[in-house]
Amino acid sequence: MEYILNVDKEAGCLFCNAPKDADDERFILKRGKHSFVILNLFPYNPGHLMVAPYRHVAHFYDLTPDEITEIGEFVKLCEKALSEETHPDGFNIGINIGRVAGAGFDGHIHVHIVPRWNGDTNFMPILGNTKVIPEGIRATYEKLKRYFED
Ligand SMILES: [Zn+2]
Question: Distance, CA 138 to ligand 1 centroid (Å)?
């Protein structure tokens, strides 16, 4: 719960602010040249990850080829880590652009990687407000970290 309260009070852009802090403070799993992998503090399901560029850009068309390549590689890494560690039945991988489409932070593009289990509920809440799972964020971070080491 402490983490959620902190994020609510955060000024500015989460995806611009987070990389300035320590990895384990912000639950950053991987830092690349152009982008990074971070745990969602408002997860739809345990293990809900996000990949974002360092640059504050709103649209997919704003991304450079190098950013797209690295973000794509990181999405692969996320799917693989979650598959091996948590054995989900499926995934939702996608981008919400604009608040009407469900983006919580609509100024800074990010890809969601959401593991899904049979019966975990329907698809719609992913695109709207996510449910809150306050406990277990640090445990999930510790479990997944090793998959993202070089
Ligand atoms: Zn930003």
Answer: 23
Domain span at residue 65? 2-148
Q: Which residue has the tokens 């408002």?
A: 42
**Residue 144's CATH number:** 3.30.428.10
> Active-site residue 110, yes or no?
yes
Q: Which of 107, 110, 21, 43 is nearest to 74 (CA)?
A: 110
Ligand 1 centroid distance, CA of 79 (Å): 24
Residue range 104-123, pLDDT digits in tens: 777 999 999 999 998 886 55
The total number of structural domains in the chain stands at: 1
pTM attached to this predicted model: 0.85
What is the four-CA torsion angle of 80, 47, 23, 55, rounded to 10 degrees? 80
Q: How far is the CA of 105 from the centre of ligand 1 (A)?
A: 8
| Active-site entry in 34, 56, 110, 112 | 110
